[in-house]
Amino acid sequence: MTSYLIRPDLVTSPDGPFLAAAELTQAEARETPPHSHARGQLMGALSGLMSVGLDNQNWVVPAVHAIWIPPHCVHSVRSYGPFSGWSVFITEPRCANLPGAPRAIRTTALLREAVRRAATWPGAELDQTQARIAEVVIDELRASKEESLALPRPEDPRLIRITDALAADLSDNRRLEEWAAWAGLAPRTLSRRFLAETGLSFAQWRQQARVLRALELVADGVAVTTIALELGYENVSAFIDMFRRALGTTPGRYLAAEETNDNAGA
Length: 266
Fold this sequence. Notes:
globular, nine-stranded antiparallel β-sheet
């Protein structure tokens, strides 16, 4: 039996409140196959890990982040293990001034608190107080800065074999030439096709995969030394340097900022 996150009519119908929200806490993994709906959806994580499939990209959603999915955009959703998060559904006319393409954002304490309030509403037309809170959600989304949480997926089966193997073991430090030989490709072909199909070089793709995995582990409170080893770095300093170059801060400061946001929204 399907367990709905929110009443289906609040997702598919243009009628009803212009904004509806729901929160979800679960102990087991949850997977939703590719689908779309007329309302735009903003989905965020509070704890645990969620991924969103959009076109040929996989968007990882670590804690205190969210993904905006415009109306009619086909997407799939998967959570891994224990997870707590939320979703907001906005009617299509109210999406006109919101981003026209999917994007990842880092949420604010104000946005999360407004969503928490909205998730308690019954799904009826909004009163004046509720409408003001709903407008806060829309304003926060409109003003948010885009973050790079997407990992493009190639189409060539040989490249997919490589990316799947890397995703399973990001500590694998084989060079491009070694991966090419393993997959039966010439190094130049691998390099050229990787860039053409993902928009990233092989080295950039692997680093992005490591950054996203690092965000997941940092959000779960895993020790920095353990993260560095899991991602294939010889020492903690090299990992911290990569993290700083990619995100503009160190893992410790990133986690402290998340904890500050959580406390502010509590």
